[in-house]
C-alpha cells in the first residue's frame, strides 16, 4: 500500500487595524474571536472554483468578502504560522500576515460566516476568548506597526462590536 501523507487545510489570516489602531476580529460559531481570512481553495477541477495560487491575494479576497474592508497583504507575522485544532481531531495550518487597511474608516460588515465583528485595542485582546496563536499574532503585528509602546494607547470608546 503506498504511503499517503496527512493533508491539513491551510487557512490564511490577516491582522488588520482600523484608523484608531484597533484590531479587527470576528466571532465564530464556537463563540471565539478570530482573525479574518479563510481556507486556501484547492479548486474543483471543473473550473467552477479555481484554485488559489497566491495566498496573499486569497487573503485580500477573504477579508473583503467577510468584512467589506479592502486590504493589502503585508509580511508574514513572526510566529504567525501554527497548527490549530478547532475541534478534536481536525487540524488546520494557520498562516498569518500583517495587513495594511486601505479603508480604515469603513465600519466592518459581518458576513454569514460569522456572528459578530469587533474592533479591539491591544489591552483588550488578551482578555478575549480566542486561540493563543491569534493572540500572539496580534501582539506581534502591534509591535511591528506601533513600536515604542504607542500600541498601548487607548482612546475613549475604544471598544466597538458590530453584530
Protein described:
By secondary structure, the protein is α+β, with helices and mostly antiparallel strands. The protein has 2 helices and 8 strands, in the order ββββαβββαβ. It has a 4-stranded mixed beta sheet, sandwiched between helices. Strands 3-2-7-8 form a 4-stranded antiparallel beta sheet, with no helix packed on it. The N and C termini lie far apart (51 Å). Residues 149-163 have low confidence and may be disordered.
What structural keywords apply?
four-stranded antiparallel β-sheet, alpha+beta, globular, single chain, 2 helices
Strand residue content: 25-35%
- N-to-C CA distance: 51 Å
Q: Identify low-pLDDT runs.
A: 149-163
Radius of gyration: 16 Å
Helix content range of the residues, please? 10-25%
Mean pLDDT: 86
Q: Report the principal-axis shape.
A: globular
H-E order: EEEEHEEEHE
> Strand sequence of the main sheet, in spatial order?
4-1-6-5
The helix tally amounts to 2
Largest sheet: 4 strands, mixed
User: How many beta-strand runs?
Assistant: 8
What is the structural class? Answer: alpha+beta
Summarize the helices and strands and which ones pair or pack.
Layout: E1 10-15, E2 23-27, E3 33-34, E4 37-39, H1 55-67, E5 71-87, E6 90-101, E7 116-120, H2 132-145, E8 160-162
Amino acid at each position: 500500500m503506498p504511503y499517503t501523507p496527512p493533508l491539513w487545510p491551510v487557512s490564511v489570516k490577516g491582522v488588520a487595524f482600523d484608523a484608531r489602531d484597533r484590531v479587527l476580529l470576528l466571532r465564530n460559531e464556537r463563540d471565539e474571536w478570530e482573525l479574518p481570512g479563510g481556507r486556501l481553495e484547492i479548486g474543483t477541477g471543473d473550473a467552477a472554483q479555481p484554485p488559489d495560487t497566491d495566498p496573499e491575494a486569497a487573503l485580500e479576497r477573504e477579508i473583503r468578502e467577510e468584512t467589506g474592508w479592502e486590504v493589502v497583504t503585508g509580511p508574514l507575522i513572526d510566529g504567525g504560522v501554527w497548527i490549530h485544532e478547532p475541534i478534536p481531531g481536525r487540524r488546520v495550518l494557520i498562516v498569518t500576515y500583517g495587513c495594511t487597511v486601505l479603508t480604515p474608516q469603513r465600519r466592518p460588515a459581518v458576513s454569514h460566516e460569522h456572528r459578530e465583528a469587533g474592533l479591539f485595542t491591544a489591552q483588550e485582546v488578551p482578555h478575549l476568548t480566542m486561540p493563543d496563536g491569534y493572540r500572539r499574532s496580534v501582539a506581534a503585528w502591534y509591535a511591528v506597526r506601533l513600536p515604542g509602546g504607542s500600541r498601548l494607547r487607548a482612546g475613549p470608546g475604544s471598544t466597538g462590536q458590530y453584530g
